[in-house]
Amino acid sequence: MSFKQLTPLFSVSGQIAEEDVATAARSGFRALIDCRPDGEEAGQASFADVSAWAAKHGLKAFHTPVTPSDVKDADVEKFAGALDAAEGPVLGYCKSGKRAATLWALSQAGKLDAAAILGAARGAGMDLSAIAPRLTACGSGSGGEQKTYDVVIVGGGSGGIAAAASLLKRRPSLSIAIVEPADVHYYQPGFTLVGAGVFEPETTKRPMASVMPDKANWIKQSVASFNPESNELALADGSILRYRALIVSPGIKLDWEAIPGLVETLGENGVTSNYRYDLAPRTHALAQGLKRGRALFTQPPMPIKCAGAPQKAMYLSCDTWRRNGALDNIEVEFHNAGAVLFGVPAYVPALMQYVERYDIKLCFESKLVAVDGKRRVATFEQKDAEGKATGVEREFDMLHAVPPQRAPDFIAKSPLAGETGFVSVAPDTLQHTRYPNVFGLGDAIGTTNAKTAAAARKQAPVVAINVLATLDGKKPHVGYDGYGSCPLTVERGKIVLAEFGYGGKLLPSFPKWMIDGTKPSRMAWFLKDRMLPPIYWRCMLKGREWLCDRHMIEENAEPASK
Q1: Which residue, among 459, 449, 455, has the nearest Cα to 422 in the 3D structure?
Q2: Which segments in the chain show pLDDT lower than 50?
Q3: Domains observed in the chain
Q4: What are the Beta-lactamase hydrolase-like protein phosphatase-like domain coordinates in residue numbering (predicted)?
């Protein structure tokens, strides 16, 4: 059973069974709302059954039964009360999910704009246009708080904070809101070195409040829906934000649930991942403790954030085993869903030297599809030369798993999304392809550059300058060249510093005599270990744009057409 998200706090589905209740609990739902009368259909689980299943899995359960043609105001009030009592994400269900969506929509009348309500439902595949007059009659939008800003930024990660700082550096008078529900900001490039025992985990996180620019307004909320035609977005609490310009940078979704069995065994049974703050220290502990056996490292299909990170964990683990004399007793396999070791050929020879040094078995077009933690067995879908896929099981003593990654649901289901689900922007100006006052940066945009913090560092000033041009009635006039950087940690103390742009063009930041990115370098290690963290915290997030050259795409920016 698939759950269709309308907002970060409410999703719908068709009739559920006990296994769906278990999945809902694992997915973070706190309550279920049954919108069907009992006995409506033969074989339908009763509310009593569902309530018992919910209690078993720690969920609340509510019953607000309605028939499709008769949804009364009293039913809506009862449903709204259940939402309030849930204290967290809610799954509403009926035969198809539409009744649950209808009750939710009517419960939001007077809180959210009617267009935002209908847009959220439409994003979940529910056409509720038939109740549009009722939403309007209820005064939809009239009771929700509305604020207008020069710029609204969605996302308080590296891209969003850097863009805000860059804007305020150039024009301190701007009114800026940053929409971000998280309390903590992470320096995610540091997770690799946490997984190698080089960094302490605590050095890679800071309170979100400490990185927010002083002149920006932090709105600690989630986005429910976008309405770019009206220059507004709706928040999970029902308030509406209006903007003159919108910057979208919410990051990428790590889809751990897409691999059956993985969530249940993460952190146990030899399974770890540097893609999670709490698990990166376990990678180091497992590597130190493993003396013999088989270690598997996986990489999912693109796109993913930092495409080199899966193999960085492998090289540093191998170096640990080499140093403690265990490498000869450990069978190392790299299962890459792609067809090549690294997407830019210039860096492959240096990486292959380490593949050979560590005696790593490369398994291309091999995708992790299931994990049985108790048996310590990973299942891969492997393609042969003719492209035929077969399932292959591999026992393991250590598994470093990287989840598939995709656009956040509230982006993929919004008017801002392109065909891939990511925000559709021009690759050079980073301006939205349909809405001129909307821009995007970071991992959530649908461009072909590598999704790295270094990319966001280069994108932030481009977005800031082009947003200001747009606010001034001019066309965007600076461009982003697709720059991304991937410091490939091939051993403790040496890095292959991959720097490249669109089409795999090499874009080195330093002369060859200082750092030759195609060869392992101690200077590159010094850069990542000692220089990049303070550059991140003290420069990038503060609007100090070190090594952020950009190119003009027009000699003179003409006023934009009205």
Answers
A1: 449
A2: 140-144, 555-562
A3: 4-137 (3.90.190.10), 147-252+407-480+548-552 (3.50.50.60), 256-403 (3.50.50.60), 484-531 (no CATH)
A4: 3-110
